[in-house]
Amino acid sequence: MTNLEVRPEEALCEALGMRGPVAELHEAREVPLGGVRAMQVRRTLPQRALPLVGAWCFLDEMGPQSVDMRVLPHPHTALQTVTWPLVGEILHRDSVGSEVVVRPGQLNLMTAGHGVAHSEFTLGDAAPLHGVQLWVALPDDVMDGAPSFEQVADLPVWEAHGARATVFVGGLDGARSRARVHTPLLGADVVVEPGHDVVLPLERGFEHAVLVLGGRALVAGVDVAPGPLLYLGDGRDEVTVRAGAEGARLMLLGGEPFAHDLVMWWNFVGRSHTDISAARAAWESPDAAERFGSVVGHGPERIPAPALPNVRLQPRRRRHRPENP
Description:
Blueprint: E1 11-13, E2 21-26, E3 29-33, E4 39-45, E5 56-67, E6 70-76, E7 79-87, E8 90-94, E9 99-102, E10 107-111, E11 116-122, E12 127-137, E13 148-152, E14 157-160, E15 163-172, E16 175-176, E17 185-192, E18 197-201, E19 207-219, E20 222-224, E21 229-233, E22 238-255, E23 262-265, E24 268-270, H1 273-284, H2 288-292
Antiparallel strand pairs: 1-23, 2-21, 3-4, 4-5, 5-12, 6-11, 7-10, 7-12, 8-9, 8-11, 10-13, 14-15, 15-16, 15-17, 17-22, 18-22, 19-20, 19-21, 19-22, 23-24
């Protein structure tokens, strides 16, 4: 997935200090993607009040809707894309040479490193689609590395009475995904049966958030419906989820607070204005393939980069929680 906004705002993402347990609802922003395709996504990361959850730096929920999604080749730097479909099939092609269809229960994980390009198309006309795509910011030691791609289908499952969680990234109470990430992370798709309570074990050193994907749930005492992201802070060993009368499906995200400041703009992640400007210039250059490669199955068609804003992008400095709040 790409950020198709023609005037994207820079996301000046500040690495956060530890905050302790909280329960904050952050409303989603409705974002139209692709003009006449009228595809809508609900974006809950990044936003000024919550730029990151661990290294998770971008979160779009697509659908549920029927759509002909045709996202042409576009670039990424210094991040990993995590594609998790709930309904529908997506054809992924990239400049590493991959051409695969991802289906519900399977994970697509693409690592951009110094630069990669990819495209994503739904299969069929007006195909049903509901899914989530996230970006993971890469730490300094791998952010400029070689691009790669993997699809993981044999994902572990954590179970409790009335609940089942598929762990697509990281680990949950011993159930660990083999997907390769570069900072301590958690991503799990949790289904809770109608009227059931479940206690989800958490890592105390992680910050966590929950996105309800279907139904309704009481999470840490907060009534959550599809749309907003519930940020839980850090310092928790567990969280209680109570499903409503129709049951609940939710995404549990977590990770160690990210140790690096970021600049995010359009589809690029960097550490400075210079990083972003250089990536944009490379994509718009006639020699774009030198950095980003060529996407299999496509000719010259691609998504052009928007113009940079008339300001120099600056990352925010790291904030620490006061010792005596």
